[in-house]
Write a structure and sequence with these properties.
It is built from ten helices and twelve strands. The protein is an alpha/beta fold. The chain has two domains: about 90 residues, Rossmann fold (3-Layer(aba) Sandwich); about 130 residues, Rossmann fold (3-Layer(aba) Sandwich), CATH 3.40.50.720. The strands form two sheets. It has a six-stranded mixed β-sheet with strand order 2-1-3-5-6-4, sandwiched between helices. α4 crosses α5. The radius of gyration is 19 Å and the shape is globular. The two termini are about 20 Å apart.
Length: about 270
């Protein structure tokens, strides 16, 4: 059933330097499916402080936050959930009558997927990347009990800082040493990018791995994921991450938890 917009319709938004259609299509699909009087709209801004003040002043119920605002907004909210405190990064704001509580549902989604995958936390891993999402993934690994890991990052300042903060090793480049768990948190393999046809790891390393996790969400079947499936590795995809983190946002905004089937349906719709 389609809910007609009216004066009581609740607004949720996203703020990003480069807004995508995924969140808009995902949330609005579920609002329609579940007959919830909400609407979701993506925005960009050059004034993040003014935008967050608008969220508070206008009673905007929920606000998704993407790069480059995830750390800057920390000073603009009233409370950090443990998920945001763990990595000092925000991707979700919930407005309760002007009180802004912030979460990181990327972290929550990764932690849940790691638990569901039943990967032994004694498994050594290599994680390629050092940006905000890499921070969320690495923190979720640490908090899930993974003690033996290496961060691969060309930027020595960010790479070493991430490794030091979470108790992992750091190298600037991938070595020939294999690891049972390989994780990609870079744009390698992303649709439309300069490296969309490339592998984040060598075929030899992928074939030697037992678990592969690619955070790239578009396409769901990245070159890394395709190669890992052929080698028989357990796979976690970026499509799973983006859908689950959006479902976590949806529940916090509306108080309604969509079923896994509804989340999958909305994700498929959002990616079409």
């Amino acid at each position: 059933m389609t809910v007609s917009l009216n004066k009581n319709t609740t607004l949720c938004i996203s703020l990003a330097a480069r807004p995508s259609n995924f969140g808009t299509r995902f949330h609005n699909y579920l609002y329609d499916l579940l007959d919830i009087d909400f609407v979701y709209k993506a925005f960009t801004t050059t004034d993040i402080a003014g935008a967050i003040a608008g969220v508070r002043a206008l009673g905007i119920r929920g606000c998704s936050v993407s790069m480059p605002f995830k750390e800057e907004v920390i000073a603009l909210v009233d409370e950090l959930d443990a998920s945001a405190t763990a990595i000092q990064s925000i991707n979700t704001i919930v407005n309760d009558d002007g009180y802004l509580r912030a979460y990181n549902t990327d972290y929550l989604a990764v932690a849940q997927l790691l638990a569901e995958s039943a990967i032994d936390p004694t498994t050594p891993f290599v994680l390629r990347g050092s940006g905000g999402m890499a921070k969320a993934v690495a923190a979720a690994l640490r908090d899930s009990g993974f003690e033996h890991g290496t961060i691969v990052a060309r930027n020595p300042e960010r790479g070493q800082a991430l490794a030091h903060d979470l108790g992992y090793g750091w190298v600037a480049e991938i070595t020939d040493e294999s690891a049972p768990l390989l994780i990609n948190v870079t744009p390698i393999g992303m649709a439309g990018g300069n490296e969309e046809t490339q592998l984040a790891y060598s075929p030899e390393l992928i074939d030697a791995a037992t678990h592969v996790f690619d955070v790239v969400a578009l396409p769901a079947e990245t070159p890394l994921v395709q190669r890992a499936r052929l080698s028989g590795a357990t796979v976690i995809t970026g499509a799973q991450v983006i859908a689950l983190q959006a479902a976590e946002q949806f529940e916090r905004y509306t108080g309604v938890r969509p079923t896994p089937e509804q989340v999958a349906e909305a994700s498929t719709h959002a990616r079409a």
